[in-house]
Amino acid sequence: MARAKVFAGACGFTIVIKVQKIAKMKVEVSLISACRDVRALNEDLAAVDCSKGVFGNMVESYIYKAASKRLHHPDCPVPCAIIKAIQVELGGALPKDVTIKISE
Description:
Elements: E1 2-7, E2 14-23, E3 26-33, H1 36-40, H2 42-45, E4 48-49, H3 62-70, H4 78-89
């Protein structure tokens, strides 16, 4: 199981993402967070067929489409983290941290 932990920033929420492979190109995604909008994504990500538009163009990605229905802030880092965790679980990426540092 691949796991990712996101500290989302100004909203103050922490999100734990768990991805479990359930078939060759299918995964189950579980999101644990106090954020109601992020938790709502669990309905869309219970069984994700990664052969159908998960890793394609960003605006056509199943993950980003689901996120655009549920999340109210376009700067939320959770969709990207979900895709990274899926890639790790399927063996398509190494488990390396991603960092964004914002300053004035």
